[in-house]
TrEMBL record:
It is an enzyme of class 1 (oxidoreductase). Its EC number is 1.14.11.13. InterPro entries: DIOX_N (IPR026992), IPNS-like_FE2OG_OXY (IPR044861), IPNS-like_sf (IPR027443), Iron_ascorbate_oxido_reductase (IPR050231), Oxoglu/Fe-dep_dioxygenase_dom (IPR005123). The lineage of its organism: Eukaryota, Viridiplantae, Streptophyta, Embryophyta, Tracheophyta. This is gibberellin 2beta-dioxygenase. Belongs to the iron/ascorbate-dependent oxidoreductase family. GA2OX subfamily. It catalyses: gibberellin A1 + 2-oxoglutarate + O2 = gibberellin A8 + succinate + CO2. SUPFAM superfamilies: Clavaminate synthase-like. PANTHER family: 2-OXOGLUTARATE (2OG) AND FE(II)-DEPENDENT OXYGENASE SUPERFAMILY PROTEIN-RELATED. Keywords: Dioxygenase, Iron, Metal-binding, Oxidoreductase. Pathway: Hormone biosynthesis; Plant hormone biosynthesis; gibberellin biosynthesis. GO terms for biological process: gibberellin catabolic process; response to light stimulus. The keyword Iron applies. It holds the Pfam family 2OG-FeII_Oxy. It comes from Brassica napus.
Amino acid sequence: MVKGSQKIVAADKGIPIIDMSQERSRVSMQIVKACETLGFFKVVNHGFDRTIISRMEQESINFFAKSVHEKKSVESVNQPFRYGFRDIGLNGDSGEVEYLLFHTNDPAFRSKASFRSAVNCYIEAVRQLAHEILELTAEGLGVPPHTFSRLISSVDSDSILRVNHYPPSDQFFGGATLSDKSVSLTRVGFGEHTDPQILTVLRSNGVGGLQVSNPDGMWVPVFPDPSAFCVNVGDLLQVMTNGRFISVRHRALTYGKESRLSTSFFAGPPLQAMIGPLQAMVTTANQPRLYQTFTWSEYKKLAYSLRLEDSRLDMFRTGKGLEDP
Ligand code: GA4
């Protein structure tokens, strides 16, 4: 069931759509503005190879159409990157979703060579897109261009690819019929949360379900556009920009008779990378340092020990007695 009284506004209301074919400085300014106001935007004319997208999508469709037994046998070498059904994380969260998780430095899994190759090609292409967006972001902020992108291009960067399949709502009614008017079709596919990493780059098929929380406390449904990529700020980018960018809360609902398929790349740094507010973001008196410095490993450990909807960033605010020397 969907809980909470947060209101829902019109689809795409206030969501920036950024045309990446514009002049570079315009794109970088628009990205910075979107990260400051909502923490979420769509990019179009991004130059992503369409064949890579369609191969990835077709292989994912084929995979999720298999029997549960077959799907479960596709275990990744690196637990907990795996096939999952309903259970999200390790602390009791669940949703109407099945998924595949791949660690991007080791996406080895027991499946057809064509699926493995589609995943590898997609990871390389989406990593490049994330890299480009992070360079544009740095340029827009006036900090050295590789400030953020170097963290995700390192060989030991800790990024994840996730493919979520939200089956049609009517597959989850266990006996109730859809003609029963008291049965609401709307279900939570993936509950509200922020992404712990630096940046997320998501693409979906033409079925809606993603919603982002705006600064007025409303849910904004994201109109599905298979030709666009959705980009959201993660917790680490909020920290590095000293709170200037918003790590946006988002969720996925399932309401229809159609399957939704989404593919998200969570761009993360190496486990030992030190993360803290950039000096350039804390220099003036009106921008006091909001967060401590920590390693991604420390932050990830904390995030994975909490529930999906928990706010973890607050635990790394300054003034908690664990200040940097
Ligand atoms: C949210 C972003 C990614 O999907 C993810 C998720 C992870 C998981 O599914 O195992 C987490 C969630 C995500 C944040 C809090 C913890 C960990 C589920 C959960 C309850 C793969 C990630 O990196 O963090």
